[in-house]
Every structure is written in C-alpha cells, then in structure tokens.
Amino acid sequence: xxxxxxxxxxxxxxxxxxxxxxxxxxxxxxxxxxxxxxxxxxxxxxxxxxxxxxxxxxxxxxxxxxxxxxxxxxxxxxxxxxxxxxxxxxxxxxxxxxxxxxxxxxxxxxxxxxxxxxxxxxxxxxxxxxxxxxxxxxxxxxxxxxxxxxxxxxxxxxxxxxxxxxxxxxxxxxxxxxxxxxxxxxxxxxxxxxxxxxxxxxxxxxxxxxxxxxxxxxxxxxxxxxxxxxxxxxxxxxxxxxxxxxxxxxxxxxxxxxxxxxxxxxxxxxxxxxxxxxxxxxxxxxxxxxxxxxxxxxxxxxxxxxxxxxxxxxxxxxxxxxxxxxxxxxxxxxxxxxxxxxxxxxxxxxxxxxxxxxxxxxxxxxxxxxxxxxxxxxxxxxxxxxxxxxxxxxxxxxxxxxxxxxxxxxxxxxxxxxxxxxxxxxxxxxxxxxxxxxxxxxxxxxxxxxxxxxxxxxx
Length: 459
Known about the structure:
Blueprint: H1 6-22, E1 27-33, E2 39-45, H2 49-55, E3 57-59, E4 85-89, E5 95-96, E6 103-111, H3 122-135, E7 139-152, H4 170-189, E8 194-199, E9 205-210, H5 215-235, E10 238-241, E11 257-263, E12 266-267, H6 280-291, H7 293-300, H8 306-309, E13 322-324, E14 331-334, H9 341-344, E15 346-349, H10 358-374, H11 392-398, H12 407-415, H13 418-424, H14 426-442, H15 448-455
Parallel strand pairs: 1-6, 13-14
Antiparallel strand pairs: 1-2, 3-4, 4-6, 5-6, 7-9, 7-10, 7-11, 8-9, 11-12, 11-15, 14-15
C-alpha cells in the first residue's frame, strides 16, 4: 500500500516552486548517493517540482549496482535493466544553491511505482536508524569533517600547483584566501553553519567542519558541502579531490564522523561516572561502535583505495583502540574545553573516508551503537600512546589488533556481523557486499600509482 499522500505532496511542491521562482531558480537537482558512494543526479524544471514531489522521477533499479567506475555489476538482488523506481525530493532539505545560481538542490527518497519505500534507499535507512535510537529513549547529534585537495586546473595532478608552504601554514590561506572566504560565505548563504576551516597536512589540502545536526541532516549537509566545494573550486580555476589517496605518497583525505548521544537535553558523553565523563549509555554506545569497527569499515572505508590511506602513523586510526584525544586511535574521545563539555563532548570515528555513502555511514554507526547499548557493552582500557609505538607483544597484552588492511577483510567482517546485517536488511546488506567484491575484482592487480590515478576525481 502506498505511504504517500500525493495531493498533500503536490501542494507542498507547488508552494516550494513558487518560492524558488521568486529566488530566480530555474532547475532543481535531485540527488542520491549510490552504493559505491557516488552522488547521482536527475534534474527537473521548477515548473515540474510539484509533480516530481507527488509522483517522483523515474530511475532504474540498476543504480543499486553501479560501481564507482560506472560499470554495472550483478548481484543476488539485481534485476538488470528491468524495473523502475521513483525519486521523490525531500522538500524539508530543499536548498537554493548560491554556488550555482539558477539551481536548487534536494536529496530524494526512493519508492517503487506503488509508493512503497525501496529497501535499498540509504537515506531512508539513515532515518530508520535515527528513529530506532529515539525508540530507545535517545537521540544523536552528528557531523562530518571533510578533507580535500585542490589543484590548479592547468596542472590537475600536482597538489602543489594551487598552494605551497608548510602544513597548516598561513601561507596557504594567503595564497587561497579569497577562495576560502567565498566558500565560507556561500555555505553560510545556503544555511550551512561552518565551525572551522583550515589548511591541512598534505600539499594543497584543506579541512572544513560544520555544526552537528540530526544524523540524516548531517549526511545531507555533507553532500551539500562537498558539491559546494566542487563548484566554488571550479569558479577559481581549481579542481577539488576528496579521494582517500590523491597520490601514493600523501597522507590522504579523511571523512571523520563525530557523534554525541543525548537523552533529552543532556549530552550523555559528559557528566557521567565512566572514563572521561562518559555515562553508561554513552560508553555502551561507543563500545558497540569500537567492537564493530572491522565490519563498519566495509561501510565507512568502502573502496579498495581506502586501505592505502588506512595505515599506521598517518593519524587514520589503523589499530583497534580508543583514547582521550588520541589521534592515532580510530575512536577518539573528545571532551572539549572545560566549561563546554556538557555540549562539546563527543566521539570521533577517524578511520572513515569520503568514498563512503554518508547515509549508510550514519545508519551503520547508529545500529552499532544501539547493539552496544542492548548488550550493555563496556569499552576496554583507553590508550594514551601511539599503538604503532608498542611492540606486537605489548599490543597483544592490551588486546589491540590491526584493523582490516584490505577491503576484502572488511567485507568478511561485515558479513559475519549479525546486528549490522539485520539493521541494513538482507537485500541492502547483500547488495553492498556484492558491490564491494565487484570493486575488488575491478581493480585487482592495480598498483598504488595506477589506483590513485584511476580514482582521484571520482568521489
């Protein structure tokens, strides 16, 4: 049975179209992130927004099986060229794009032609996971950190073509100050609250952090921010890469995720009697994530390229551990400054990157955290050193193991995790791993230089 009130949706779409016309918008981009982490799009004229909202825009089921290379693979649930989905824009997230005048953007929800939700809709899954957390009496605030490398269009493969100077240095701001100023201004105009923007470690690399939000909105924001960065970069004759490894020798771009768990107005990551102020619920939530990080990598580090980045002593969190402000731990506890901890304290997942579908990421983290709460899980002793500085025997005594060093290892861990598979549902869980195995086969035998060159501009 259809879950859509088409008359009400049409009325909302018409009202939204009227507003967009007054703002000079002609076209609306409707987007979804596919199972390979690539943003796909269709567009409608503003005059068709009401119809698109009520009845959706057609899209092939085969998008579920696209690889990042645009090859269409097969899988247990593939229907090949047969079938049709309907993409319905979420008007609550509709945004006029200051970065692309005349355009607006809206993420979509996927339904079949009867108005039944599509079981492989990543955005709907994120909403389901968020609702499940609420059913247990909690909520979450989430945000993504985005790292990217800019190059000059005249030398797109050279990260020193747009900036030079020391890591984190003001020299890079001096060189690209107007670019960064315009970027921050446009994001503000589009309703994105920028918390911090700064040069990063690698040549040509920058990082941007935004305010935390509801998990679905946080994923929406990560999509909007990335495409805004891409658009503004082009306006300045630059090209932006979010690849986890721009070249074999750089440190790579991360896609860190911050989460805090709340009970009403109380941040459960602060003011508790467990380590560093965690409450029992927040500790269990964090322990659920830590326990499942090997499996979660199949969602948050879903590319074969991810594992070139995920190496020791690159601040990516290559060993299974957690600690207070430990940037070599994949689960980092952040307390914040004294006097702000009741709002600032959160957990950061450092081992993920931007080849991931952000909606799948937040869903997976919430399902993992909920499994931890259900099992009253406890965190191990925190680590206050670089785990790579310990001997193998010292790590063994502390129970610190290496996270998967390949996508194949992460796939095996995901398939062995019953709680994550249950949360995702059999169809989506199976398809995701079919996609991962197909990417492994696609790049089998590729060396680091070939792999980084092939994937530099995809995500």
